[in-house]
Amino acid sequence: MNYQHSSLAPGLYLVATPIGHARDITLRALDVLGSADLLAAEDTRTLQKLMQIHGVGREGRALIAYHDHSGGAAAARIAEEIRAGRSVAYASEAGSPLISDPGYRLVAELARQGLPVTVIPGACAAVAALSVAGLATDRFLFLGFPPAKAAARLSWLAAEAHGGATQVIYESPRRVEDLLVALAETHGEDRPVALCRELTKSYETVLRGSVAELLEQVRETPPRGECVLVVAGAAPEGAGAEDMETALVNALERLSMKDAVKEVAESLGMPRKAVYQRALSLREDG
User: Which stretches make up the RsmI HTH domain (predicted)?
Assistant: First the structure.
């Protein structure tokens, strides 16, 4: 399908792009990429390849690189183009612009100048991982990438260890083992987690279990590709033996013992072994 150039109102258009599968792009995103007066991208080659796949031509339009090393000059040019009445489409390398992406500085500067900004929503690795992790999604905290150095990473994780919200962390495959080791120290070996890799791609994999269980699996088979780690929030304040027993009684009425133990351990953030022992006692007591 060919997308023809048509008029867009002046302003910056934040265009979400696929995180893996090239077809995970919206029709509106393709319309904007085909219609904007100028194009801007964190990685210009990636955007050009995506446009070629979907039959969106550049038609002589300028393509501006906007990343950590070009931000100041590129932002000034984009602002100047918008003030001159032109539309600019900005795409990050993959996913939603501004999520672990330098584009937020551009939006902040345009907002400061009172220039219009519009979002064209779409794929986001953090949201995709939350959807398949099997952990609570009513409250979540996006943490992005952890520090590379061990001491800084421990402090960074420790600051969030007792929060009740589910945590979403991006990490490179070569540092996932180090991240899980640090999580075992700050959050505990029994904290439920899900490791999501290569989301939307042909080798998409989701590993679920405790920090200790995933650490063992990662050591046996080191992950490859883009990784998102979803970590259960801490148990609610005051959650104890009585809360666990009540939750177990309710869960055992609906589920097998294995599934009931898993549900209660994850919902209360309690060690699975302790929940299992209590479930055995309840069964013996009738």
Answer: 239-283
Q: Which two tokens stand for residue 50?
A: 């995506």
pLDDT of 239 > 70? The answer is no
Q: What proportions of the chain, in percent to the nearest 5, are helix, strand and coil?
A: 40, 20, 40
Report pTM: 0.79
Q: Would you say residue 16 has pLDDT above 90?
A: yes
**How many Å apart are CA 121 and CA 253, to the nearest integer?**
42
The three-class DSSP label of residue 51 is: helix
Architecture of the domain made up of 126-231? 2-Layer Sandwich (3.30)
CATH of 11-123, one of 3.40.50.980, 3.40.1010.10, 3.40.50.720, 3.40.50.300: 3.40.1010.10
Question: Mind giving me the DSSP string for 208-275?
Answer: EEEHHHHHHHHHHS---S-EEEEEPPPPPTT--HHHHHHHHHHHHTTS-HHHHHHHHHHHHT--HHHH
CA 262 to chain centre: 24
Q: 143-175, pLDDT tens digit by residue?
A: 999 999 999 999 999 999 989 899 999 999 999
Query: Which run of H or of E encompasses 186?
Result: helix 176-186
